[in-house]
Amino acid sequence: MNDTVLRLERITKIYNKGLRNEIRVLREVDLSVGEGEVVALVAPSGAGKSTLLHIAGLLDTPDDGRVVIGGEEMSGENDRKRTAVRRDSVGFVYQFHHLLPEFTALENVVLPQLANGAGSREAEARAMTLLDSVGIADRARHRPAALSGGEQQRVAFCRAMANKPRLLLADEPTGNLDPETSDRVFAALMALVRETGLSAVIATHNHELASRMDRQVQLDQGQLRAL
Ligand SMILES: Nc1ncnc2c1ncn2[C@@H]1O[C@H](COP(=O)(O)OP(=O)(O)OP(=O)(O)O)[C@@H](O)[C@H]1O
């Protein structure tokens, strides 16, 4: 049995390759995330956090190295296969929620499930369970504009979890919230992650939040080291 959900091996990413302004953002980065493990990715702004998360989530490709998700080597796969694995296995949460403004909170969590072949009744029931688990079931029929920043971000977590991913990737998911709200929303996220036994890589500038995860790694000068 393979209990490593994500494995990055010697990942190198270079922007503007061969040009005068070439940037080597990631230099032979290795990272393994086990089943149910939550890893904090700490890095100063511009260090390459988003690049690393996008490569891990198959939204971008490295210049060198291997990405293995659930034991499957993804580097040589075509776009169709990568999209399928991303849709089935990976959930994303960004700093800004990116919810669909014309749909309600419930619909935002239902839609990815319908796109993945779920029936509407089943999708709605799962969406309500998720919204309830982060304490916003009573906001299910509101559109994002009628929700607070913290509530919007909770909906974004539920959307990321909608298709039962194995891996959650979050790019400063509470970075846009005031400290108190950030604390509460982060606690809701962690409770949901723990309850579902999900593996996660969560980027944050906040060392206190990072300390609540299983392990902290720091990205510095293109290299990853344990904190
Ligand atoms: N498409 C691109 N083309 C050229 N350079 C890029 C590109 N994307 C990112 N970069 C550069 O690579 C570096 C890392 O960017 P990245 O967005 O991964 O950083 P980050 O750690 O997520 O930063 P922040 O916390 O500010 O969002 C930055 O110097 C950025 O300017």
UniProtKB/TrEMBL annotation:
Instruction: State the SMART domains in the record.
Output: AAA
Q: Which UniProt keywords apply?
A: ATP-binding, Cell inner membrane, Cell membrane, Lipoprotein, Membrane, Nucleotide-binding, Transport
Is Membrane given among the entry's keywords? yes
Q: Which SUPFAM superfamilies did the record assign?
A: P-loop containing nucleoside triphosphate hydrolases
Q: Where is the ABC transporter domain?
A: 6-227
GO cellular component terms listed in the entry, alphabetical order: membrane protein complex; plasma membrane
The protein's name is Lipoprotein-releasing system ATP-binding protein
> Which range is the signal sequence, renumbered to this chain?
none
Q: Which organism is it from?
A: Roseivivax halotolerans
Q: Name one GO biological process term.
A: protein localization to outer membrane
**CDD domains per UniProt:** ABC_MJ0796_LolCDE_FtsE
Gene Ontology MF terms: ATP binding; ATP hydrolysis activity; transmembrane transporter activity
Among InterPro entries, the record links this protein to: AAA+_ATPase (IPR003593), ABC_transporter-like_ATP-bd (IPR003439), ABC_transporter-like_CS (IPR017871), ABC_transpr_LolD-like (IPR015854), MacB-like_ATP-bd (IPR017911), P-loop_NTPase (IPR027417)
| Family statement drawn from the similarity comment of this UniProt entry | Belongs to the ABC transporter superfamily. Macrolide exporter (TC 3.A.1.122) family.
What sections of the protein cross the membrane? Answer: none
Q: What is the lineage of its organism?
A: Bacteria, Pseudomonadati, Pseudomonadota, Alphaproteobacteria, Rhodobacterales
